[in-house]
Every structure is written in C-alpha cells, then in structure tokens.
Automatic annotation (TrEMBL):
Matching SMART domains: HDc
Cofactor section: Mg(2+)
UniProt domain HD: residue ranges: 264-384
Name of the protein: Poly(A) polymerase
Length: 482
C-alpha cells in the first residue's frame, strides 16, 4: 500500500508540475542564467504531490532579496516587497501569486515574540529549518529534480506529520509550529507522529511568546480546515488550548444533561461537525469561520452558570449571555476584527432563542422579532440552531427539525409579505418630532422604539392608525404634561 501511495503522489506531482511548467521553467531559467539557485519549495511541492496545488507558488533561492527584485523585473506583472525583512519578495505573473524567499534560518530567542531571520547558504540547510518533513520538499528549477533529504515524500504518502530533526528543536526555533501541527491535522487529515505530540505536550506553554495575531491566523486556518475536530482535539490533549483557548478544555468537565452527552466538550465538537455539514445553507461558497467558531463556542458560558438543584437536576441559566461575553473577550484577546467578534458573539447569544418558543406556536410578532434580532446573521443562526440538536432520541430530534422547518417557512412567508429584513417604524424621526412637537433628543429615540415594537407586534399598519397609537403613547409620558 505504501508503494502504491508513493506512486500515486509522484504521478499527481508530475501532472501538477507540467501544469505550471510555463511559469516555473521561465523563472528557473532567469535565476540559473544569473548564477543563482531556485527551487519550488514547501507547501507548493506538498500540494502538487497531493494534487491540490492552488494559485500560490512558493520558491526559495540563493539570491538575496535585492537580486530577486532585479531578476523578476520586467518578467512579473507586479512586484511587492512587503516581506523584505523576512527575505521574501512577492510577485504576480498572470493568475499566479508568487513568493520568492532567500535561503534562511529562522529562530526565536527565548523571550522574543518575533523570529530573528538570517540568510542560509544551501537548499538542504533551508529545508532542514522547515516545520515538517512534508514541507521540507523542493523541486530544483529549471527541471524537475526532487530534493527530499528528510523522507517527506514517504511521510506524505503515509499521511504523517514529523519534523525534519528533533521536534523539541523545531518548536524551540518557532513555537507556532506546534499550532501548525494541529492546523495540518485539520487541513490535510494527517496523523501527528507520537514524538511530535509528546514534544507539544511538554512545550505547550512556549506558545505564549508568539504574537496573538499569528496564533489567531493559525486558529482560523484550523477551524476552516476539512477536519477541525482532529486539530482541536490535538490542541486540547496537548495543553495548547489551555494557553490560547482555555474556554474549550474547560467544557470537558461539565456534564450536559440537556443533550445527554457525556460532556459539553463532546457536544460542542458534534455541533461543529453538524454545522459544517450544513454550510451550503449559508451560501458563503466555502468554509464559514463565523458559523464554525460560534458552533464551537456556543456553550462556553455553561461552566460559569452551572447550578446544582434538587433531585440531581443541573441548570445553566443564561449561559448564552455569559457565553457571548466570554466569546467576545477571547476573540478580542486574539486580535480578531470587530465585525467577526460581534458576529460570533451575537450568534452565541442568540443560539437558544428558538427554544424559547415552546412547542413551535410562533406568533407573527415572535417571527418578526427573531428575524430582526438575527439581522444579517439569520442564515447562520438557522444552521447553528439546527446543528445544536445532538440528542440521540430520534423522535425528539425529528420533532425539533420539523418545528424548525415550520419556523423557516413562516420566516419565508412573512419576509415575502412584509420584507422582514428591512423592518422599520412606520414614521421616521422627522415625522415623530412634527407630530409630537418635540425637538431632537432621547425622547425621539424612545418614541421610535415604541413604534418599532408596535410594528413588530402588529405588522404593517395604516399611517393614521400609527399616528393615533403614537399620540396615545405620548399622552402617557410625563414629558407631555410639561
């Protein structure tokens, strides 16, 4: 089987190299003419062997950055040097995005948050500094000579992540590589070698010297991979999650009586799996980080809200509110953008809203409020709420799904009739001030809120009726007597 897998990988690699030959051959010839070495390297070679090479091509070279710029000037359609301090020059050639990095050695000082970059002299030396053997592969250019000094091709065929040298040395050089192991377990569905797992477990606290932004980026790639559960389980089992996402391992001890799972941690991973299976409902065209992260974190408020009551009953009252606050706090610590923080925490806050309406006897008013509260997150909320049903009782699960089907049908009908996504009061601020004879200020906002609630409760109304209701409300306000 191993020989068969090797052969399949080699055949895929040849096909991909032939596909990109016009670009890599031209580029290789330019560097060779200048007396410099150039090789396709790392993830590009790995992905070519896996038959999944995208438009991003990574190269390594003996040339220094200023030489690289001169060599690709006039050949590339565009050139940029945003990565110059790391020895990298970027370019675009047609549909291909290219990064060319000088042979380098990269390592952290014990207390540094940024790697110190020094240039290397050989291709083999550069490959020896890479994170995993499957990324320590190169193809010399021009030509197709594979350079594999650490058995990366064999590990790739076997689907195993190993380090070129001792994992302890690799993770000392760059602690973020520990997270990359979890990320590749998710993206590539590769197993992590036992000695690598042991090193991560022993060194997990070293991840704290890495910047929050770099940790965040790896976490996003993990969550949006093909098998996030595998990567997350590695983070938790090795202690990495205790350092970067401590709310997740904290769920392991919290028995979730509502879903009859052994703990909230397992339930949360199952909800994530089920949300991924329904992602096509969102229409995002690919992995949806917001929905996935909300599914993972939707119950993180339970540990803080758990209460033991009579008869062995356990409750988690308002855990969705607590969870939303914890989610926002953790995401801000990881330097997520405000729009992502707001979206994920809002979904966590709303994830129980559906269950607040009992057996499904939804009034039109309740449907309007549900849609308004969800806003642009409605499709994601649909997915999260459906995914949150993990009961093993088939009859109960079927009943919940039928009830939610009915809710979505009601949403669709009312949306068509009333344009629910754009519900506003029937009078605007200027009309309110003119009718009540008041000037701009907080009172206008209160009146506007009254009219919005009226619209949500009653649906579309005649403007004369709306004015009459506003005047009735106004007569009940202390300010009307002043």
């Amino acid at each position: 089987m191993s020989n068969e897998r090797l052969s399949e990988a080699q055949q895929r690699g040849v096909r991909e190299l032939l596909r990109i030959a016009p670009v890599i051959d031209e580029l290789g010839a330019r560097f060779r003419a200048a007396g410099e070495q150039l090789a396709l390297v790392g993830g590009s070679v790995r992905d070519a062997l896996l038959g999944r090479l995208g438009p991003d091509l990574d190269f390594t070279t003996s040339a220094r950055p200023e030489q690289v710029e001169r060599l690709i000037a006039g050949w590339a359609d565009a050139v940029w040097d945003i990565g110059r301090e790391f020895g990298t020059i970027g370019a675009r050639k047609g549909d291909w995005r290219i990064e060319i990095t000088t042979f380098r050695a990269e390592a952290y000082d014990p207390d540094s948050r940024k790697p110190a970059v020094t240039y290397g002299d050989t291709l083999e030396g550069d490959l020896g500094r890479r994170d995993f053997t499957v990324n320590a592969l190169a193809v010399k250019l021009p030509g197709t000579e594979l350079v594999d000094p650490f058995g990366g091709l064999t590990d790739l065929a076997a689907g195993v992540l190993r380090t070129p040298g001792r994992p302890e040395d690799s993770f000392t050089d760059d602690p973020l590589r520990m997270m990359r192991a979890a990320r590749f377990a998710s993206q590539l569905r590769f197993a992590v070698a036992p000695e690598v797992v042991a090193a991560i477990r022993a060194m997990s606290d070293r991840i704290t010297i890495v910047s929050a932004e770099r940790v965040r980026d790896e976490l996003v790639k993990l969550i949006t991979g093909e098998d996030p559960r595998a990567g997350l389980e590695l983070l938790v089992s090795t202690g990495l999650a205790d350092q970067i996402l401590p709310e997740l391992p904290a769920l392991r001890l919290e028995v979730d009586e509502h879903h009859r799972h052994k703990d909230v941690y397992e339930h949360s991973l199952t909800v994530l799996d089920q949300a991924i299976a329904m992602e096509d409902r969102i229409g995002s065209g690919g992995p949806d980080f917001v929905t996935r992260f909300a599914a993972l974190l939707h119950d993180i408020g339970k540990p803080a809200t758990r209460r033991f009551e009579g008869g062995g009953r356990v409750t988690f009252h308002h855990h969705e509110v607590k969870g939303a606050k914890l989610t926002a706090k953790r995401m801000r610590a990881l330097r997520f953008a405000s729009d992502q923080v707001n979206a994920v925490s809002r979904l966590v806050e709303l994830h129980l809203r559906f269950h607040g309406y009992g057996g499904g006897e939804w009034t039109d008013s309740a449907v309007r409020r549900y849609v308004r509260d969800a806003g642009p997150l409605l499709d994601r909320l649909h997915v999260l709420t459906r995914a949150d049903c993990t009961t093993r009782n088939r009859r109960k699960a079927a009943a919940l799904q039928r009830t939610y089907d009915q809710l979505e049908e009601r949403v669709a009908r009312l949306t068509e009739e009333e344009e629910l996504g754009r519900i506003r009061p029937d009078l605007d601020g200027n009309e309110i001030m003119e009718l009540l004879g008041i000037s701009a200020g907080p009172l206008v906002g209160r009146a506007w809120k009254f009219l919005l609630d009226l619209r949500l409760d009653q649906g579309p109304m005649d403007k004369d009726a709306v004015r009459a209701e506003l005047l009735r409300w106004w007569q009940e306000q202390p300010e009307s007597k002043a």
